[in-house]
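Request: When convenient, would you put together a sequence paired with its structure tokens?
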Amino acid sequence: MKVLNNNLSATQLKSVWTKIYQDWLDRKVDFTNLTIPSFYNRSKHFAVIVAQGTTMNELVTAIKKRFNVNLYTKDLDALVKINDRIADKDYVVIFNISIEADKNLKNLSADKLAEMNISGITLLERLFLEIFYFDQLGENLDINNWTLCSGSRDYGGVPGVHRNLDGSITVAYFNPSYHSNIISSRAVVTQ
């Protein structure tokens, strides 16, 4: 397994994300004035930078240029309408570094995570995390398990993301009360 060089200063991190937007989405962005949270620890955390107006469909189109993506619906933006965070402005969200989703959240349903007041990754953020990791290492996340995107909901389900043995990515959905040993969320790090 390759090791991610995540030892980036705030300025370098913004530069990496600016390049990702250019290379993957053919978008010019300016994160110069965006503040990276002070608790961000580059040896422990992934930082995902979401630019205003970015959509899930836009990310899927970008990912499909590099590898196959299997979706449970053709239009994620139309179906996944409830999200804890939306791209109505640029923002940064922090997650613990791990190839698989948080082990301590394994076998917890989206309903249980909400009951525990655990803020989880949205589908948009999980797709961005895939792009970031693949861009930096040429590898995928969630090789053995699913990330439950508990920060997002469609009209009754909760999206999840997994990398398949053939290297493709699958976006599926789960009942909000469903839990399994191969499903876990990624909690937002807030301090």
Remarks:
- The radius of gyration is 15 Å.
- The first helix runs from residue 10 to 25.
- The CA atoms of residues 56 and 77 lie 6 Å apart.
- The chain has a mean pLDDT of 91.
